[in-house]
User: Fold this.
Amino acid sequence: MSEKTIRKHLEPPCSLEAMHKAYRIVNGCEFLKLTGRKRGLIVGSMNGRGYVKLSVPPSPCRIRSTIPRSYAVWWMTTGIWPMAPTMDHIDRNRMNDRIENLRQATYEEQSYNQDRVFHPDKGVREAYNGKYTARACLTQKGPQVHLGTFDTRAEARAAVQRVDWATKIDA
Assistant:
């Protein structure tokens, strides 16, 4: 994400009073338009990444802009503009913007939410002598540990899988 995009969400795009005049939160996370040609309709549009964006009322410094609906829910419910770079959906459902499902998060905290995809040969490399070496990363950011040298790729893969399952159980 560019610095301009990050900076864009660090300050509110309009006043909180203007948001309360333009929208009312219904059903926990949907926005009912109170003014303009879409008065009485639930508004918001989906962006390409699966998040709902919401147009904000124009202000003297901005003609028109959009913010993520999760930011708007947080802001209108708590009265405080979120200061973290992102909003985390606790249940990982991008459409569920209810306040009890949101928390402020850094990009590093968000990276822990990504699904771990297990590649069958993860950590297995062919050594120069035709044998196979196995390495495993015991934590997400920790050092790799050499598990040994094995005669076959299947033996090396089994060693990595044993360590991978053991770290999942311990977590």
Notes: The first helix runs from residue 3 to 8. The helical segments are 3-8, 16-22, 69-78, 107-111, 153-170. Confidence is low (pLDDT under 50) at residues 1-7.
